[in-house]
Amino acid sequence: MVIVLSSKVKEVTHVLDRIQEAGFTGYQAGPSTVVVPGNDEKLQEIVGALPQVERVVPIKSPYPLASREFHPENTVINVRGQIIGGSKPVIMAGPCSVESLDNIVEIAQAVKKAGGNVLRGGAFKPRSSPYSFQGHGEEGLKMMAIAREKTGLPIISEVMEPDKVALVAEYVDILQIGARNMQNYPLLRAAGKSGKPVMLKRGLSGTIEEWLMAAEYILAEGNPNVILCERGIRTYETATRNTLDLNAVPVVQHLSHLPIVVDPSHGVGKAQFVRPMARAGIAAGAAGVIVEIHPNPAKAWSDASQTLDFDEFNLMVDDVNRVASALHPELDSARALVHA
Fold first, then answer.
1. pTM higher than 0.85, yes or no?
2. Is 57 exposed, middle or buried (0-12, 13-18, 19+ CB in 10 A)?
3. Where would I find the DAHP synthetase I/KDSA domain in this sequence (predicted)?
4. CB-based contacts of 11: which residues, under 8 Å, 6+ apart?
5. Which residues contact 48 (CB under 8 A, 6 or more apart)?
6. Are the C-beta atoms of 262 and 289 separated by less than 8 Å?
7. pLDDT tens digits, the chain, 340 residues: what are they?
8. Helix-helix angle 310-327:330-339, to 10 degrees
9. How far apart are CA 264 and CA 229, in angstroms?
10. Longest dimension (CA), the chain
11. Residues 323, 324, 330, CA angle at the centre, nearest 5°?
12. Where are the beta strands (DSSP E) in the chain?
């Protein structure tokens, strides 16, 4: 169950004590929320009668804070004026790895010119080989921050270790938890405590329930701004790098209020298929896409085979907006008002 306290309550100790006296354990999840595993009716009566308690919500789901049972309406996240989770798709784009200041600024300007909303880039890179380029670290984050100053685009970058969360959060607007770290629980907790929006990528073999349980770790730290990212799962198919599981989009939207975006770059691993899968993701109902782009993909320091050039990216943005407009005609009306 989830216990919602009055907004005027500044101390939850009394509520937690009453829960413990009744033989249960309560977990504080934010300043005005307590989670208790199970839905004991007697406990509901006890805590429901407390003056500090605004409401008690019985939850069947194993991920109560992420579930629609507790939060029926969609979560919408505002990042420097860019809306994630609304009817207009958010487009995140940038290089797999930040290479140089000139390069990331050039890419950021291309993202903005095409109509993109968020600049992505890897400063700390988890690579399959220990001999591959691992990223510029903090210097890469500084380069991204300069690109943000020049374009106004919010930035997202991956954090890989709990003790690096504070450093990365100092520079970025959205923390990214990569697929390999979906169940790195100390990292999830640290990201949740940062207060920054967090994009959680689905693990290579993660089930949807495991993914939402991982999101619960972030939410349980009192951080409501979680974005889910379907980036492809590992299957028997070898024609593509991974299998972009578009089933996950409507399933997650049925189970959870959290916004979900798709990553067709990692989902298929081949540039020629990124554009159609971006269209498909939006058609399935995703709140946006995140893709890798580069002025010369053949010379990209990492993930060259799945990276779009600027021309292809421009076409993809147009495709995504056309699909979104077909699903939400009001977007065309809003654009017409802006250009009038």
1. yes
2. middle
3. 81-314
4. none
5. 55, 56
6. yes
7. 999 998 777 778 889 999 999 999 999 998 889 999 999 999 999 999 999 899 999 999 999 999 999 999 999 999 999 999 998 999 999 999 999 999 999 999 999 999 999 999 999 876 667 756 667 899 999 999 999 999 999 999 999 999 999 999 999 999 999 999 999 999 999 999 999 999 999 999 999 999 999 999 999 999 999 999 999 999 999 999 999 999 999 999 999 999 999 999 999 999 999 999 999 999 999 999 999 999 999 999 989 999 999 999 999 999 999 999 999 888 765 554 444 4
8. 120
9. 10
10. 65
11. 130
12. 2-5, 27-28, 33-35, 53-57, 77-79, 82-84, 90-94, 118-120, 155-158, 174-177, 198-201, 226-230, 260-262, 288-292
What are the Cα distances from residue 269, in Å, to 142, 232, 280, 285? 28, 9, 16, 22
Lookup: tokens for 71: 């939060």
Assigned token pair, 117: 């909303």
